[in-house]
Amino acid sequence: MRLGAVVSARPSCNALASASKHFNLTPSNTTHSYSQVSLPSLKHKLKEHCSTFITNSSTKLGKKWMEYQGVNNWEGLLDPLDDNLRSEIIRYGLFVEAAYRSFDFDPSSPTYAASKFPRNSLLARSGIGETGYRTTKHLRATSGVQLPRWIDKAPSWVSTQSSWIGYVAVCQDKEEIARLGRRDVVIAYRGTATCLEWVENLRASLTCLPGKNCNHVGPSCNGPMVESGFLSLYTSQTATCPSLQDMVREEIARVFEMYGDEPLSFTITGHSLGAALATLTAYDINSTFENAPMVTVISFGGPRVGNRSFRCQLEKSGTRILRIVNSDDLITKVPGFVIDNNDTASKKAVHVAGFPCWFRKLVEDTQWVYADLGRELRLSSKKSPYLGRRDAVTCHELSTYLHLVSGFVSSTCPFRATAKKFLNKHHVEKLGCR
């Protein structure tokens, strides 16, 4: 899932209109279809626009940076959506886009499921612009699925067990550190790409987190529980590849040692499967490191991750989670069932929303009762007049999410009238922009 629409470089209405004019895509240009624009010129403008967003996010957050990282759970910033927060959300979304662009999706390639770019040039070569960050660690996720013997006869891409999933990047630019009000550390994860990652996604029953007051697995477990496949990808390892969990812990310990005496933040971001792994990573950092700095998750199109006890532990640890949700995205509605929104993390009986009492009782005794986590910024593809397609794939695309964030104003004005539709996935791929 690659960037299918180019979002505005700045969140303001004027900039959105200006960007549309720059791409010659305003409604007044009805005589020009996308295919009629000069191809070399359009490719140049597209790549130029892709690379300018982060460097143009010049609003100084200063002492208010903790508010934008969710110290007050983004109260007063989501509805209407604060322009500075909008800018930060899109900025972190582009870090996720860099993870997608860096991944080798080609099964016939000798570097399939690895990063196409070396660590020291990943952000520059992925085309997201001058970020002020330096990539310090490549991250890999490993599937714990036990493969049958016959898998040796299948193509190698079918049995790829470990794959590059994302990276750690530390802000190094002095001006950017001053703008942000602290040194920021980003952990960015891509979404599902390999065969075994898809298999792990289907392992949707809840399982207990090890070592968290839970001595057994099953419906009677009272401790925090998370989706089995996500936990497997986070904790599994091979003889030659450590687990994603161990990689993260090692790098976070190194960052603490180098920068622990500075104002510091950890921002973990991801799309789809990456959103789930971002949540597990945040939980792990706060559970492993004493006096950890502020840990914030900004996720796009993420599935459900854990139960009420898991949510409660996240809240107690001070982890802040902002979930960007497209109401028309099916992935955000799975797996399992979710408790009623008015059912807080108390000892009240679980109530499954939208189902009769007999079914609720049946579900209570299973490992399928999830809980929504953190704060939610809810968007809708239906509110954008510029999305020509609204199928399941389009609604889940990271590009769709960035487009909707760019245009969202408030619940009473869901999409700014001057926001323009830029290039969709089909045209980006046609132009060869990766």
Q: What is the H-and-E element order?
A: HHHHHHEEHEHEEHHEHEHEEHEEHHH
Q: Given the C-alpha coordinates, what overall shape results? A: globular
Helix-residue proportion: 25-40%
Mean pLDDT, nearest integer?
80
**Total number of domains:** 1
- Rg, alpha carbons: 21 Å
Distance between the termini: 10 Å
Task: Give the beta-strand count.
Answer: 11
Identify the CATH architecture: 3-Layer(aba) Sandwich
CATH topology tier name: Rossmann fold
Q: What is the CATH top level name?
A: Alpha Beta
Provide the CATH superfamily: Alpha/Beta hydrolase fold, catalytic domain
Describe the sheet with the most strands.
7 strands, mixed
Structure classification = alpha/beta
β-sheet strand percentage: 5-15%
InterPro entries: AB_hydrolase_fold, Fungal_lipase-type
Protein name: Fungal lipase-type domain-containing protein
Family: Belongs to the AB hydrolase superfamily. Lipase family.
Keywords: Chloroplast, Hydrolase, Lipid degradation, Lipid metabolism, Plastid, Transit peptide
